[in-house]
Amino acid sequence: MKRNFTVRQGALDGVEAFLSVARHRSFRKAAAELGVTPSAMSQAVRALEARVGAALFLRTTRSVGLSEAGERFHMRARPAFEELVAASDVARDLGQRPAGLLRLTVPRAVVPILLEPLIASFCEAFPQVEVEIAASEELVDIAAGGFDAGIRLGQFIAADMVAVRLTPPFKFVVVGSPEYLRRRGRPERIDDLRQHACLRIRRSNGSMGSWSFVNGNKPIEAIVSGPLIAHDFPTILGAAAEGMGLAQVPEPIAAGAVKAGKLMHVLEPFAPMGPGVFLYYPSRHQMMPKLRAFIDHAKSRSDTTNKTRIHTANRKLRAVKMR
């Protein structure tokens, strides 16, 4: 049978006063310790005794002692109250400085290209914070899952979340291995994909992701087919590198394999632009210092990266002009 439990209003009122009097065996000394008048101290203890239903102290004009009920109450109340004080201190400490466990839910694809360098530098800068990464393609309910924040592509973040940009916008590109392209030929038009093996993503809601393109200013959704369906970008990227077919993925994810010659871009004029990767969380009013520190650190690294990218682009432009 289900039982109903309630805590009476003011159930802890007077406990600190009682413990102080029991420790000093004096209402006057206890009042001085807590910064109240002896009269207020006496009233607090009498109210506690009334709620408990027993006298907790034996009082004379010369001394104060604990009754049997007071001894038993003291034996149970003192360690419990000390635990409450300790719990408050721990919570207050976490609310005042970056410390504790920072839990993040992220897709697998962003871990090597974004999180690994970011987490390494963050942990070095804030050694009192432990970082836990739950890599999953599921769109997790942050509050229900006990996460401080999540990281996702911008188009998948709910409108009621606070979002912080971690990367610039980037293209979604189609890539294939040199061996596959020699065997099957390079697609030159979007319609050419009908004759190609296209590796597809199944979204966390169970739907099959179509391939998105732009032709001028016109968005196009292409229904494709192929031998493999995966739930994350790293899997289809690896399959593409093995020559199984073409894959459409965020450009930063494919950049390493393209640079190494394992993959090549196709249909580049039709590549659509995505909003980029964002960190998101429920509310600014609930933000703990550990999350605030992580956001500031991520922004600082992003600003540094953008400045480096702009400087490199300007340097290349000056070199072209000098030729």
In words, what does this structure look like?
- The chain is of the alpha/beta class.
- The chain folds into 3 domains: 15-95, Orthogonal Bundle (Arc Repressor Mutant, subunit A); 100-168 and 276-317, Periplasmic binding protein-like II (D-Maltodextrin-Binding Protein, domain 2); 170-274, 3-Layer(aba) Sandwich (D-Maltodextrin-Binding Protein, domain 2).
- The chain has helices at 15-24, 27-34, 38-52, 68-96, 110-125, 142-145, 178-184, 233-241, 251-259, 289-322; strands at 57-59, 64-66, 100-106, 129-135, 149-153, 162-165, 170-176, 198-201, 211-215, 218-222, 229-230, 246-250, 264-266, 273-274, 277-281.
- Strands 7, 8, 11, 12, 13 and 14 form a 6-stranded mixed beta sheet that branches. A 5-stranded mixed beta sheet has the order 4-3-5-15-6, with helices on one face. It has a two-stranded antiparallel ribbon with strand order 1-2.
- Residues 1-9, 306-314 and 316-322 have low confidence and may be disordered.
Kindly, what is the distance between the CA atoms of the first and last residues, rounded to a whole number of angstroms?
87 Å
Query: And the CATH topology of the largest domain?
Result: D-Maltodextrin-Binding Protein, domain 2
SSE order in H/E notation? Answer: HHHEEHEHEHEEEHEEEEHEHEEEH
CATH superfamily of the largest domain: Periplasmic binding protein-like II
Oligomer: single chain
CATH architecture classification of the largest domain: 3-Layer(aba) Sandwich
Sheet with the most strands? 6 strands, mixed
Low-confidence stretches: 1-9, 306-314, 316-322
Shape: rod-shaped
- Helix-strand category: alpha/beta
Number of strands: 15
The portion of residues assigned to helices is: 40-55%
CATH first level of the largest domain: Alpha Beta
Radius of gyration: 32 Å
Integer tally of domains:
3
Number of helical segments?
A: 10
Q: What proportion of the residues form beta strands (DSSP E)?
A: 15-25%
Mean pLDDT over the full residue set:
85
